[in-house]
Design brief:
The structure is a homodimer.
Chain A lengths: L4 E13 L2 E8 L19 E2 L2 E3 L8 H13 L5 E8 L14 E10 L12 E4 L15 H17 L3 H15 L11 H10 L4 H13 L22 H18 L11 E2 H12 L5 H10 L3 E8 L7 E6 L3 H4 L12
Parallel strand pairs in A: 1-6
Antiparallel strand pairs in A: 1-2, 1-4, 2-3, 2-7, 5-6, 8-10, 9-10
Helix pairs in contact in A: 2-3, 3-4, 4-6
Chain A binds a DNA duplex through helix 8.
DNA sequence: CCCATTTATGCTCTTATTGAGCAATAACGC
DNA sequence: GCGTTATTGCTCAATAAGAGCATAAATGGG
């Protein structure tokens, strides 16, 4: 009852450039299996997260493997690395459908400073919110929530035969997208992605169902309707891993001073706030943000000033590493504005 | 450069019985390798966490595998399952030292109600704090911290030749055990265990170094001194996984209503508080705890009463599942008493 | 039956945190 | 000089949270 097993490492490498949260991506190496050439295959998605098969003999720890993969690919030094989750659902890699080994992957989150990618592997930065347009609330409530998501989720709920299922779907939709008047919870990134996946609102869901049908998985049938697909898709379960990373990042931001790993040694408080906002996807109250950073002991002034601000020059601050210890209050960033 | 790879699942199954937090353990199946019979091997530790090799063909998800392992072994239904971490450090399984495959394991946390174990696999409950006596602050600051840990950590710091290392060790010790007057942080369970491991205060650290020396790992030498060992050891990296589980559990307790998975459908507020205290390892202010539970909407009265309390009868409450949604305030339990 | 004991429950008081906004400061370009 | 832009300082109110006092409702011993 064994079957083959393959363990991969996948890294979500995040930086923030001028208010844009970005992720390192590579071209997907997916190849259409021999037996299916010419058939009605879904087009392979080209964006993929960088990763590699874990070589047991080569690294003492998984994290060493991650660093080697990521730094080799991008030439950028990882300033923070954290294990996210191990993704092991069957068929997460389409090759499994055609006799390939069961492919598990350990996902990692890595933070880097905003630097150009030096590697030669065809890696490039991309705006994180290209994949999750509904997650960026900095300007305003994203329009596609009301114009596309809500109606589609309502149709999806209504489509369930069983009233119990119907109620559960409605409730999940309300919870994930704060439709019941509750405030938006920026952290539920994965919950939202999975809901959209199940409701058939992201292309991957159709791709996977079609592949399963082609591979002859019991009970699988190619979906007929193809509603408007949301966000830029990724190969395999890349977007699920990315959603996990964003969720973790948003959560951690709140009580651990990890933003600073994304910034140069000296920065203005405005720049710092911009980075936080880019990742949390919300706007913050400027004065309160400053108060928390300073009185919380996270930063200290350098004495130097930045005068390209367009207004009054802003003082440059540096991160106080000791702040990690003092930890008087737990919070590391304030709540979003109402 | 491949080498073999083996993926295991390991489960930390937690319940609370009458104020005692307990974990399911099995007898370790470690066997002394042929080549080393009769040599000066460290005695194998008998307590082990339940687990099994993951069979790729058999389960659709890792979590299904975990449920099968855990419920098959104990006969107890898992009420909550969460992936913890994937442990992949080289030599976490001693067999690797003697030519065995690289053994990774995906660790899971599972919560169950306090029930007798029905399985036939030799599984049994054990007090969690047998393994971490320094983590239980319910009665008072554990005496062994001042009598054993602090002096030993001071010796360990002083033993470093390099002044930088010395300073770093001192700082880590202060941070982990709150020696600088900072309040005890119950969540740093893993940090503390790893510190004690590095400082040679838990037997596993000596065991591992002896094994590595026997297996001829470069740079490894059997330790000479054997200071007082703290807490009950476990096979392999069981205690590291257990520490990870306790840390996660303590953290999650604070902002997610998962305590209720450990309780019967109806319970007194006192019982609820006991369970939280057992896991957090601290005492809570009774009135404030009640206030938070009730005003936070986590519980509602059933109307029935419990009169075996020894004093005034206590009302029985039940968990309000909807509380998960309302989530007005984030907190799910108050801070510890000062 | 009264009373000490025990545990549950209700309520107040004080302080710290935090959301929100007003106002002043210090640069720039015309 | 003056409008513009952005930084910085400060106040105020609402809320959450820590701590303790007081009362209620059971038990058991004299």
């Amino acid at each position: 009852m064994g079957g083959e097993l393959q363990l991969g490492l996948t890294v979500v490498i995040v930086a923030v450039a001028a208010g844009v949260p970005r992720v390192v991506e590579v071209r997907s190496g997916f190849e259409v299996p021999e037996a299916l050439r010419g058939r009605d295959l879904p087009p392979p998605h080209r964006d993929a997260l960088p990763g590699a098969t874990f070589e047991p003999g080569r690294f003492r720890t998984l994290q060493e493997g991650v660093r080697a993969v990521a730094e080799g690919l991008t030439g950028v030094g990882l300033r923070y690395v954290e294990q996210l989750y191990t993704f092991g659902d069957r068929f997460r890699d389409p090759h499994e459908l055609f006799g390939g080994p069961r492919a598990l992957s350990v996902g990692y989150l890595a933070l880097v400073r905003d630097e150009p990618i030096g590697g030669s592997g065809g890696a490039a930065w991309r705006d994180l919110y290209d994949h999750f347009p509904w997650e960026d609330w900095r300007e305003e409530r994203p329009a596609l929530i009301d114009s596309v998501i809500v109606p589609a989720l309502e149709r999806w709920s209504a489509a369930a035969e069983d009233p119990g299922t119907r109620a559960r779907r409605t409730e999940r939709a309300q919870l994930a997208f704060a439709l019941d008047g509750a405030p938006w919870d920026g952290e539920r990134v994965l919950q939202r992605y999975e809901l959209l996946y199940e409701a058939g609102l992201v292309v991957e869901s159709h791709r996977d169902r079609r592949l399963e049908a082609l591979a002859g998985v019991a009970g699988a049938s190619a979906p007929r309707d193809m509603p408007r697909a949301l966000g830029r898709p990724m190969a395999r379960d890349g977007r699920r891993i990315l959603a996990t990373a964003l969720e973790r990042l948003r959560g951690k931001l709140k009580y651990r001073p990890i933003v600073f790993e994304l910034l140069p040694p000296a920065f203005t408080l405005h720049r710092l706030q911009q980075v936080v906002e880019a990742l949390s996807g919300t706007r913050l109250h400027k004065q309160n943000f400053r108060r928390l950073m300073i009185s919380g002991g996270f930063v200290e002034p350098t004495g130097a000033f930045e005068n390209q601000t367009g207004g009054r020059p802003a003082e440059l601050y540096r991160f106080r590493r000791q702040a990690v210890h003092e930890r008087t209050s737990t919070r590391a960033i304030p709540d979003a504005e109402a």
